[in-house]
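In the lab's daily routine, each protein ends up as an entry in a very long ledger. A line of letters takes care of the sequence, but it says nothing directly about the fold. The fold becomes a row of whole numbers, each drawn from a learned catalogue of backbone shapes. The protein below has been through that process, and both of its lines are reproduced in full:
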Amino acid sequence: MPTLTLTPAERRQRRGEAHHLDPVVMIGAEGLTPAVEREVDAALKAHGLIKVRMLSDARDEREATLQALADKLDAAAVQHIGKLLVLWRQPADKDKAEREDRKPGPRIVRVTQPPKHPARSPVSRKVKLLGNQRVTAGGLIKRAKPPAQRSAKKKAGG
């Protein structure tokens, strides 16, 4: 498989995105094994952009490993800094099956509450609401109550 090539602007963007990431795979004393390749492939499928920590002290060995991973897994070698290797591969598009019986999922709502002290600014926070929840005027989260069940006698009598 050919290695993906990135333009300098794309490489810079990927380095910025990878800055806050933690390594998801570690390569130990055994070096690049088939098990390590499988783990890196799985991580690339799941995340697209990953960091790999290699514990070897030989810089040439780390560079060779980065190129070998990029060649074998059809990924782009983004960065090699110290003992960290950064790889990127375009994530595959996931096809989501549309279902008719599915209800809307959770939604995020911003709730602003007045301050407890008049000299302070209002408190704003984001809240995740499930399908059966709503926000009251006071900023509280309430669940929708199920419809009240009536007894057979009340149904018949009116």
Observations:
- The chain is about 30% helix and 25% strand.
- The longest helix spans residues 34-47.
